[in-house]
From TrEMBL:
InterPro entries: ClpP/crotonase-like_dom_sf, Enoyl-CoA_hydra/iso, Enoyl-CoA_hydra_C. Belongs to the enoyl-CoA hydratase/isomerase family. Signal peptide: none annotated. GO terms for molecular function: catalytic activity. Keywords: Membrane, Transmembrane, Transmembrane helix. This is Enoyl-CoA hydratase/isomerase family protein. It holds the Pfam family ECH_1. The chain crosses the membrane at residues 102-121. Gene3D superfamilies: 2-enoyl-CoA Hydratase, Chain A, domain 1 (3.90.226.10), Lyase 2-enoyl-coa Hydratase, Chain A, domain 2 (1.10.12.10). It comes from Candidatus Scatomorpha merdipullorum.
Length: 264
């Protein structure tokens, strides 16, 4: 596959996946989702890959969904159907947890919407002190996707998961570390060095042990993850995406005004 929105490299046993579509701050559309599925599969199959690093740019990890695209569809009177996209990013989310190799996410700047889900979806998250996590779905009249609600409920408890999802408030790097979501916080300037140093340490470790630790944890905590993604996340997002509230939220975001929701 020709990669148009990602850069994929393998060196010294470390596969680095860089989201590289700064035009819309690494927003995740179906093309990027397809490319993510492809490179994670390549990393899983490649015996030379021992550890995987997922990163964004200095400006942003990922801005989440492509709201501008949705806005254009709405303005043209078209239907916004996210089922295909949600299914694909769900495959990525489950794949990150299920794959036999440890995944490190390296986060600089904003991670919004589905970007939060990808950031917390690895096995270790290392972030710069300027990292900001925003479950912005509610501001558009949507629900979190790419596994965010599932992962947060499992990791920080249902009350905190509901609070972050329902308010859409920003969460900084230090709070993410205090909640146990981030493994380490460093400076923007040192993020790559710190990430790669840790990746190299893991790559020199007992890979068979890591593989089976991941299998144990997946079976203990995530065995129903794909089922939940397919049977809960897609239908709930479908209902929200078909609502007038989503149209209003999307228009308000692009038009830089406060949304007026009516619950329908």
């Amino acid at each position: 596959m020709e990669l148009k929105k990602l850069i994929y490299t393998v060196e010294d046993g470390i596969a680095v996946i860089t989201m590289n579509y700064l035009k819309n701050l690494n927003a995740i559309d179906e093309q990027m989702a397809d490319e993510l599925i492809y490179v994670f599969d390549e990393a899983e199959k490649d015996p030379n890959v021992k550890v995987v690093v997922l990163k964004g740019s200095d400006r942003a990890f990922s801005a989440g969904g492509d709201i501008g695209y949705f806005y254009q569809l709405i303005q043209a009177g078209g239907e916004v159907n996210m089922d295909g996209l949600i299914a694909k990013v769900g495959t990525v989310a489950d794949g990150m947890k299920k794959m036999s190799k440890i995944v490190i996410t390296s986060v600089c700047g904003a991670a919004a919407g589905a970007g939060v889900s990808l950031a917390i979806g690895g096995d270790f998250m290392i972030c710069a002190d300027n990292a900001k996590f925003i479950l912005a779905f509610v501001n558009l009249g949507l629900v979190p996707d790419t596994g965010a609600t599932y992962l947060l409920a499992k990791s920080i408890g249902t009350s905190r998961a509901v609070e972050l999802a329902a308010t859409g408030r920003p969460m900084g790097a230090e709070e993410a570390k205090a909640l146990g979501l981030a493994y380490k916080v460093t400076t923007k300037e040192e993020l790559d060095e710190v990430t790669m140093k840790f990746a190299k340490k893991l790559a020199a470790g007992p890979l068979l042990s890591y593989k089976n630790i991941k299998k144990q944890v997946y079976d203990a905590a995530y065995a129903d993850y794909k089922k939940w993604l397919d049977e809960t996340e897609i239908p709930t997002q479908r209902e929200c995406a078909a609502s007038m509230d989503f149209q209003e939220g999307c228009k308000a975001f692009i038009e830089k005004r406060k949304a007026v929701f009516e619950g329908k």
